[in-house]
Design goal:
The protein contains no helices and 23 strands. It is globular, with a radius of gyration of 26 Å. Strand 2 and strand 3 form a beta hairpin.
């Protein structure tokens, strides 16, 4: 809406933005496990904890534009049929902006779990809890939040092959560092989630296949959403924060955000995996997802589905064993398909055609892999793999970057990767 259209040759004006960033992090953790029996109840326990640190810095993001101070810095046009994203005038200006003050985060976590098998051996109960504390140290303030998150699960064996389970859990994670609300203050409220799930697990064909059916509901609160109101600093790459707000310390021009009151996702998942034959392993899964913004101050999003979340996806993976030798290991071929239904961008005011969002068509990708495993060499167990992602070089749009704002990013082209893994 309001964006220039390509000319007869497919050229469109472009705006270039980007930022340099730097960061470092470390984390340590440890846990202990054990088991014991008491009055006929069998206990498998786990206790552990960890500590982490993160430090990030970034520069401003308005790299080159006609309106930038000291300009104009024209960056030319972009051809939609033959785009070149890597070479443009004044690209060196990304290094002209100094890194701003650092954002830091310290986190501490502690967790306990007990898996209890009841005396009749067919019923198990899992009781677990975790405590997390996050301390955000921002350029102008600091914030500490801590919370307990429980988890409970029940598992019931109907026979040797069929099991029913039900679970309840809560989560607690901080929002990303450096996000600004409408007033230009840092967002320090953490995200909180609650998940409910029930399902069945069935072993088939003499335990060669495992089928799983799960129904779930996930409620999340305090999820950031970019503002739609220009008077409040909407998510526009060229809109700098109001003077005096925290973001002016490095001139980022970051988007402003609000927190949704409640987002809900619910659906069903089906998965079947195992050995079809002695030389053929396969896995197929399907998921249906229904989403809704249940509580929000954004009138465009309220009552509507979540952005960038396709309702359906399906994946299929096959691994065929081709050759097996005693010293040279096992050579296998992998072939997989992953497909997503259409998804949409953020909701906003209706355009001239009455559309309140844009839709990204569904797409499917094929991957290929070649694996050489269990290779014995000088007392080491080696595994070699070569993978081709997007085998047929399918052209598609990344569903996270297909939006009304005019930001459209192509999905990854065909990529080839290699890896070697050694086990001592």
């Amino acid at each position: 809406v309001g964006r220039p259209s390509p000319d007869a040759n497919g050229n469109v004006p472009r705006y270039v933005s980007g930022r340099q960033g730097a960061g470092d992090s470390w984390s340590v953790g440890a846990d202990a496990t054990g088991d014991f029996s008491l009055y006929g109840f069998e206990h498998e326990w786990l206790i552990g904890g960890g500590r982490g640190y993160e430090r990030t810095r970034s520069s401003g993001r308005q790299v080159a534009s006609q309106s930038r101070e000291g300009g104009p810095y024209p960056v030319g046009e972009l051809n939609i049929f033959n785009p070149d994203y890597r070479d443009y005038p004044y690209q060196y200006r990304i290094w002209d902006d100094p890194l701003g003050d650092p954002n830091k985060r310290n986190d501490t976590n502690f967790y306990v779990q007990d898996m209890i098998t009841l005396p009749w051996q067919t019923t198990r109960v899992m009781l677990a809890g975790g405590w997390s504390r996050y301390k955000d140290i921002l350029p102008d303030e600091s914030n500490t939040s801590a919370h307990w998150s429980p988890r409970i699960a029940l598992m019931q064996d109907f026979n040797d092959d069929l099991m029913f389970y039900a679970s309840f859990g809560q989560s607690f994670v901080p929002n990303s560092l450096g996000l600004l609300n409408a007033e230009g203050d840092y967002i320090t409220t953490p995200q909180k989630g609650t998940q409910y799930e029930v399902g069945l697990k069935q072993e088939l064909f003499n335990d060669r296949l495992l089928a799983t059916l799960a129904v779930f509901r996930i409620n999340k609160r305090n999820i950031p959403m970019a503002l739609q109101d220009a008077s409040l600093g909407e998510c526009d790459p060229g809109a700098a924060p109001a003077p005096g707000t925290p973001a002016t310390y490095d001139g980022t021009g970051d988007c402003r955000y609000m927190l949704n009151g409640l987002e809900r996702s619910q659906g069903v998942e089906v998965n079947i995996a195992g050995a079809i034959t002695e030389w053929w392993n396969a896995q197929i899964s399907y998921a249906y997802l229904d989403t809704e913004v249940v509580e929000s101050d954004d009138p465009y999003a309220l009552g509507r589905s979540l952005s960038y979340m396709p309702k359906q996806n399906v994946s299929l993976w096959n691994k065929f064993r081709l050759v097996e030798t005693q010293n040279m290991g096992v050579l296998s071929l992998g072939l997989g398909l992953t497909a997503w239904s259409k998804s949409h961008g953020t909701w906003g005011p209706a355009d001239a055609d009455g559309d309140m969002t844009s839709w990204n068509p569904g797409y499917a990708l094929v991957d290929l892999g070649l694996f050489l495993e269990d290779v014995q060499w000088q007392g080491q167990n080696l595994k070699f793999s070569a993978n081709v992602h997007n085998l047929f070089d399918r052209t598609y749009y990344d569903r996270r970057r297909y939006a009304d704002s005019g930001t459209i990013v192509w999905g990854n082209e065909r990529r080839i990767s290699f890896s070697v893994r050694s086990t001592f």
